[in-house]
Amino acid sequence: MDVYQWSAIGLAVAISVLLVTAARWALKNKLAKVWKLADFIVVRTRVTAYIAAAVVGANLGLPQDQEVKWSTYQTIDHVMTILMIASLTAFGITMAYAATDAILARLDLNSSDADRKARRLKTQVRLLRRVITSIIVVLATAAILFTFPEVEALGAGLLASAGVIGIVAGVAAQSTLGNLFAGLQLAFSDALRIGDVVVVEGEWGRVEELSLVNVTIKIWDERHLVVPVANFTTTSFENWTKQGANITAKVQLPLDWEVPVPELREEAGKLITSSKHWDGRSWSCQVIDISESGEVLVRIVATAANTDAQWFIACQIREHLVTWLATHYPQSLPRKRTEFIGGPPDESSYAAEFPGSAFRRATTSGTTHDINGSARSGNPEEV
């Protein structure tokens, strides 16, 4: 190519880049005030817009085949065509992400248990744009491949055997396709959303990311649990925020039979109703069962606005009542009782078996009797 042809290519590239620069300036300084999408377009396309402009400008400035005597010109022209497809694909993907970013920004999400509808929409939008991006990339890859004459010649044969290829591809990508459809099922069945509080494999955490392959759960201690999407459609899991953020805190105390339940209920009520973590809906304090080891099971429940408040009020109830019982009613704390039933053994036979020893018999009141039958206080001992 001569100097004029090179100059034409450079001029076309410069004009394309200048047009993109002017468009970005107008979006940022003029249209951003009335069009919320403008800011997201400027941010997302800060690289892909210039690359696409330069490649398109270079393709427009390339001379025709008959004007060039280079033997390698066809190769250069083919490479430029591939670059144009790739750059326009990247630009289209960033534009799609900019549009979805504008939608996500309007959902008014926060770091706690946010609105259920907003979290559902956020999950669906993020998953859909990943699916659409994957489809665009596949189509762009196919378009690039079909720029090669050899691949284009095989096109008819590939279409004729599409059924067999589809079966083979389906078997090979069974796991990937299973995760893809599982992710779509979770998002659109409203079974799982970004921001949901879940219990999976015994771990309590919040759904941080839902992709086409995995679900990332941020556990309370800053660890991250990565679980395949398909696991959520084949195994059960707990979703604490499926119907809303409201939740009930539960504290269960194993206590002695001598616990004063009315006084305990009054103290629990004073604590709960004065706590900033209680949402004001309901609370209760009840004896719900007797354990196998003989303790009285007292359960205190209090409603909370979200999982964070639920955790704090449960700890508050537990800490306060344990201290209050130990201070005012120590006999209410769990203890074991042992009772020996039967009369005192024969003193002469005991003295012959244990010469020089005093016989003691344990009673439930903690009083011991010596061999003369006189009572004295102290810790019961068993011989």
Descriptive labels:
single chain, 383 residues, alpha+beta, SH3 type barrels, Alpha-Beta Plaits, 4 domains, 3-stranded antiparallel sheet, 51% helix, elongated
Please give the domain count.
4
> Ranges with pLDDT <50 over ≥5 residues?
158-162, 357-383
Strand content: 5-15%
Structural class: alpha+beta
Largest sheet: 5 strands, antiparallel
Explain this structure to me?
The structure is a single chain. The chain has 383 residues and is an alpha+beta fold. It has four domains: 3-188; 197-239, SH3 type barrels; 247-332, Alpha-Beta Plaits (2-Layer Sandwich), CATH 3.30.70.100; 337-383, no CATH class. It has twelve helices and ten strands. The chain has a five-stranded antiparallel sheet. Strand 9 (367-369) and strand 10 (375-377) form a beta hairpin. Mean pLDDT is 78; it is low at 158-162 and 357-383.
In short:
This protein is an alpha+beta fold. It is 51% helix and 15% strand.
Describe the secondary-structure layout.
Blueprint: H1 3-29, H2 37-44, H3 48-61, H4 73-105, H5 116-145, H6 149-160, H7 162-172, H8 174-188, E1 197-200, E2 203-210, E3 214-219, E4 224-228, H9 231-234, E5 238-239, E6 247-255, H10 261-274, E7 283-290, E8 296-304, H11 307-328, H12 347-353, E9 367-369, E10 375-377
Antiparallel strand pairs: 1-2, 1-5, 2-3, 3-4, 6-8, 7-8, 9-10
